[in-house]
Structure formats: C-alpha cells, structure tokens
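Key result, reporting period 2: structure in, sequence out.
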C-alpha cells in the first residue's frame, strides 16, 4: 500500500501504508481479489470484487473493490474500495424475509396472484396442472379467466384499487 485516504476507526493510516495489503483480507476472499489484480494487469480493463476483513475489535466488514489500471505506469493499479457492510446485512435480511414470505404464500391453499400495474402476473402461488409458474409470469391475468367471469373480476379489482375496499368474489380460470 503506497497511499490510503481513509481507514476504519480501529486502524491507523501508519499501520496500513507500506503493509502487505492482502494480509488484511479474509483468506477465503483473497483468490478472487488476486484474480481481479491479474485480469486488470493483463487486460488493462477494470475489475470488481467483494472482500471481507476483520476489524481489530473483531467486527466483520465487507467492502466492494474496483481495480483500475494506470496507463503507461508499468502495471501500477488504482484500488477503490467502499464499505458495503450495511448493504450486505440488508440484502441478507431481505433474502431471509423473502424466503419466509414465499414459504407462507406457497403453503396457503387459496390461489394468490400478485399483479403489476398493467395487471400482468408477477407472482402466483399455485398454477393449474400441467403448467409451471414461469408459464404464466408476465402474462395478463385476464387472459387466464373464463370470458364470462372477466367483468366480475374487473369489478373486484376496481373496488379494491379505486375505493380501497376488499372484495371477495369467485371466478373461473381457464
């Protein structure tokens, strides 16, 4: 490390300057960082990776690393590192929450269909025999209803959307 403009609260700039940079990174993350170094040196194209470090007080921190080649510098690289610990924790919580939500939705016996603003199916918990969820994702919800039931379905949707009144109704799917 020749230059660093910022260090974490637990570190000192003097401890980082002149040190072997990879020693701060978890061993399991080092190979992807090294691959990025080689790629950028060989191609002079930017590369990107994530890595984790343990602070001096034992907290794991996650960083996004972008590596850039300096033209005409005999292989010198610029590393831009940004801490993304909070973002990663939020992403992990979201994945866990989505899994819980999906588990609940798929265990309900009733059909649950989530539509986008254009009334296209973005989620469905059960499909008719012979179909897979991906067969109906993105299609218009009304295309899957019996023609004679479409007015009833549209009325229920309108009541729910425009008057904020939940409506319970029945209609047949094709």
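The corresponding designed sequence is given below.
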């Amino acid at each position: 490390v020749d230059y660093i403009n910022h260090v974490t609260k637990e570190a000192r700039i003097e401890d980082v300057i002149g040190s072997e940079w990879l020693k701060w990174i978890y061993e399991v993350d080092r190979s992807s960082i090294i691959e990025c170094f080689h790629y950028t040196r060989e191609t002079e194209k930017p590369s990107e990776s994530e890595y984790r470090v343990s602070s001096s007080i034992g907290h794991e921190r996650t960083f996004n690393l972008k590596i850039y080649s300096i033209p005409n510098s005999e292989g010198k690289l610029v590393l831009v590192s940004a801490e993304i610990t909070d973002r990663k924790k939020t992403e992990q919580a979201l994945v866990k929450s989505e899994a819980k939500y999906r588990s609940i939705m798929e265990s309900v016996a009733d059909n649950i269909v989530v539509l986008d603003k254009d009334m296209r199916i973005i989620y469905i918990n059960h499909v008719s025999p012979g179909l897979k969820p991906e067969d109906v994702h993105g299609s218009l919800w009304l295309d899957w209803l019996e023609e004679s039931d479409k007015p009833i379905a549209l009325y229920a949707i309108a009541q729910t959307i425009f008057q904020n009144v939940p409506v319970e109704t029945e209609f047949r799917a094709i």
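Strands lie at 47-54, 60-69, 77-83, 113-115, 121-124. The helical segments are 13-16, 27-43, 85-107, 133-136, 150-162. This case is discussed further under Risks and Mitigation.
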